[in-house]
């Protein structure tokens, strides 16, 4: 089997600093490394080659120094490497990058393409589905395990709910989020590394060629801002006093519900009125909170655009009234049994057809395990710009969507504008509040006809569910467990206590990789970001890799950390004492206070 691994060299995220004078990033002397998920991609490819025979090729599009990352892939066991290096490729966004990579893949030929699930610098998650769209191949993102049997591949895809199992025959694009369970150490090779320029991919290169680099990229980073929040770092000995202080901070930082009142139309182009659409995702039969958050904020955007607030639902028509109560003026439904359970190919294809047919001005997609999968697939299919993982969206001049997206672990926020329509963005959970629901609203329901869906090339073959995993996006209070809890024994009791007050329980990398909690509840730069109103870090050291997962939390409390632990700098309140005596009374008092 011929396997191409797409890899990217990234600056070490915690070494990136913001220069307040030049209002730009300090890049001089910043150490670079092979993106960790790309390392996993090469390790999976080498393990598959051991089973199936064939060849592993590492490919990157990047500046001359990216050769170092390719050498690292060769040392991990890749047979050879291809370096796409040309000034014409510079400043590409994910669409420009994916188009170029797909051209190179078509030239090289491959049975299987393995990528990382995201990079640690721009973290869009978009390149793998967009590359697959350009190639016209199916994709499976965020695979934790990858095996071959009888000519097919079996993949376990990590989701916000657990794991979905898929089977498929090559060709396929896969992105991986975990190292193989038993990495095979490759023999290590010296090369060769071929350098390909734009003229190796096209017969004729035009000036400002719209296929490459910035001219071929619909989104542009307009500015970067330092977004490291100041934290209070108050050390309090007494639990009751700590609970009172935490409640004060929670009250000061209480997020407002989104407003029913739509702001006035801010048209610069006479007569221009546009709708704002939100993709609705479900958990069970109910809309996920993040969808309601975006739908609530959609009223604000739709007001400024002079248009209507539209909810888009796949599968079930039953939710229209509920979505009206949460701010939708129009509910568009694509009714099809095949869309009731999530399927990457069918959801991606459906969204592509809806966007192509309806051309909404703006579509907000939840930055969930699903949204990051079908969203960029549809963007790639239609060659539309997309901003990934936004923490804020607003309307700028002439109805353009102003997108704020975190980068480098959330310590920097970039401001991004796109130039294609529909304008697409994935937005993180808990960046907005839903509206206060109302019963006295009229909602228009439209059934969208998009034609018969194709037979999927990737087959769903079961899976497992941890119902508490997605709740770490929803809960007001998240307790994050670190290795300081000493072992898996106290976890059931902590979960029981948390459940009693409606809190969710998540874990650091060490805790989840040790199996004390499911992998799908891992928080951090290598896991998921969370932004609850209150994050209680229990026995967590709070190194940058961990703290990047909760930079956006409203109030952070550290319990049971050593005095020297970095969490004490990242926390608003540090509660002294043994966490076993502190945690439950703190949970109880704060949760009771939150309800009053
Ligand atoms: C601060 C900042 C924010 C940005 N935000 C956006 C945005 O919202 N939308 C947008 O379209 N662009 C954005 N970009 C541009 C984007 O970073 C580049 O296009 C980049 O090459 C790919 O995106 P990513 O790093 O997010 O990749 P991801 O999609 O997160 O990467 C997933 C995997 O794709 C593969 N891959 C990614 N890049 C390459 C490559 N160059 N060569 C080989 N394989 C690769 C790797 O396997 C990687 O693990 C941003 C850039 C910066 C600096």
Note down, in words, how this protein is organized.
This protein has 596 residues and is α/β, with parallel strands linked by helices. The protein folds into 3 domains: 216 residues, Rossmann fold (3-Layer(aba) Sandwich), CATH 3.40.50; 136 residues, TPP-binding domain (Rossmann fold, 3-Layer(aba) Sandwich), CATH 3.40.50; 189 residues, 3-Layer(aba) Sandwich (Rossmann fold), CATH 3.40.50. 27% of the residues lie in helices and 28% in strands. The protein has 15 helices and 33 strands. A 10-stranded mixed beta sheet has the order 13-7-6-1-8-12-9-10-11-28, sandwiched between helices. Helix 5 packs across helix 15. The protein is globular. The structure holds flavin-adenine dinucleotide (FAD). Flavin-adenine dinucleotide binds next to helix 1, strand 6, helix 3, strand 8 and helix 4.
Name its key features.
single chain, 596 residues, alpha/beta, Rossmann fold, 3 domains, 10-stranded mixed β-sheet, 7-stranded parallel β-sheet, 15 helices, binds flavin-adenine dinucleotide
Low-confidence stretches: none
The proportion of strand residues reads 25-35%
CATH 4th-level superfamily of the largest domain: HUPs
- Which compounds are bound in this model? flavin-adenine dinucleotide
What is the radius of gyration computed over CA atoms, rounded to a whole number of angstroms?
24 Å
Helix count, DSSP H or I runs of 4 or more residues: 15
Second rung of CATH, namely the architecture of the largest domain: 3-Layer(aba) Sandwich
What is the CA-CA span between the terminal residues? 62 Å
Q: Kindly name the structural category.
A: alpha/beta
CATH class of the largest domain: Alpha Beta
Looking across the biggest beta sheet, what order are the strands in? 13-7-6-1-8-12-9-10-11-28
Let me know the average pLDDT.
93
Largest sheet: 10 strands, mixed
The figure for the number of domains is: 3
The count of DSSP E runs of length 2 or more, i.e. the number of strands, is 33
């Amino acid at each position: 089997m011929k396997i191409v691994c797409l890899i990217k060299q990234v600056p070490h995220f915690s070494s990136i600093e913001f220069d307040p004078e030049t209002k730009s990033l300090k890049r001089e002397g910043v150490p670079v490394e092979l993106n960790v998920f790309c390392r996993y991609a090469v390790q999976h490819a080498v393990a598959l080659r051991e089973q199936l025979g064939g060849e592993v090729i590492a490919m990157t599009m990047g500046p001359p120094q990216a050769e170092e990352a390719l050498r690292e892939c060769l040392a991990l066991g890749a047979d050879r490497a291809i370096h796409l290096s040309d000034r014409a490729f510079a400043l590409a966004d994910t669409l420009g990058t994916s188009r170029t990579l797909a051209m190179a893949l078509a030239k090289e030929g491959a049975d299987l393409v393995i990528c990382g699930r995201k990079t640690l610098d721009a973290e869009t998650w978009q390149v793998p589905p967009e590359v697959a769209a350009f190639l016209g191949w199916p994709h499976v993102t965020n695979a934790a395990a990858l095996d071959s049997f009888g000519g097919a591949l079996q993949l376990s895809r990590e989701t916000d709910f657990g794991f979905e199992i898929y089977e498929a025959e090559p060709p396929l694009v896969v992105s991986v989020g975990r190292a193989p369970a038993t990495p095979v150490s490759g023999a290590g090779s010296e090369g060769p590394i071929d350098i390909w320029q734009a003229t190796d991919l096209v017969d004729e290169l035009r000036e400002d060629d719209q296929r490459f680099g910035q001219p071929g990229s619909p989104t542009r980073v307009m500015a970067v801002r330092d977004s490291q929040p100041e934290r209070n770092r108050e050390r309090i000995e007494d639990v009751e006093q700590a609970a009172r202080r935490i409640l004060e901070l929670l009250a000061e930082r209480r997020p407002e519900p989104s407003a029913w009142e739509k702001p006035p139309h801010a048209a610069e182009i006479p007569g221009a009125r546009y709708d704002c659409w939100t993709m609705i995702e479900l958990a069970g039969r109910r809309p996920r909170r993040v969808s309601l958050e975006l739908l609530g904020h959609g009223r604000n955007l739709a007001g400024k655009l002079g248009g209507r607030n539209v909810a888009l639902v796949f599968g079930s028509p039953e939710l229209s009234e509920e979505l009206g109560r949460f701010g939708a003026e129009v509910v568009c439904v694509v009714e099809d049994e095949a869309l009731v359970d999530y399927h990457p190919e069918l959801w991606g294809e459906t969204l592509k057809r809806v966007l192509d047919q309806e051309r909404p001005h703006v579509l907000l997609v939840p930055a969930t395990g699903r949204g990051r999968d079908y969203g960029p697939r549809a963007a790639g299919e239609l060659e539309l710009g997309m901003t990934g993982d936004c923490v804020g969206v607003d309307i700028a001049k002439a109805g353009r969507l102003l997108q704020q997206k975190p980068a480098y672990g959330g310590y920097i926020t970039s401001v991004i504008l796109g130039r294609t329509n529909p304008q697409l963005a994935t937005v993180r959970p808990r960046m907005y509040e839903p509206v206060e629901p109302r019963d006295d609203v009229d909602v228009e329901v439209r059934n969208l006809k998009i034609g018969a869906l194709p037979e999927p090339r990737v087959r769903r073959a079961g899976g497992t569910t941890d119902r508490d995993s997605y709740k770490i996006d929803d809960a007001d209070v998240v307790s994050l467990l670190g290795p300081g809890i000493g072992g898996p024994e106290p976890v059931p009791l902590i979960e029981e206590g948390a459940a009693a007050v409606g809190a969710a329980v998540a874990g650091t990398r060490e805790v989840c990789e040790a199996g004390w909690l499911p992998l799908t509840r891992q928080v951090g730069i290598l896991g998921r970001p969370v932004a609850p109103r209150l994050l209680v870090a229990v026995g967590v050291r709070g190194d940058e890799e961990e703290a990047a997962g909760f930079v956006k939390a409203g109030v952070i409390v550290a319990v049971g950390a050593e005095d020297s632990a970095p969490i004490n700098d990242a926390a608003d309140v540090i509660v002294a004492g043994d966490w076993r005596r502190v945690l439950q009374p703190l949970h109880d008092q704060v949760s009771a206070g939150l309800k009053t």
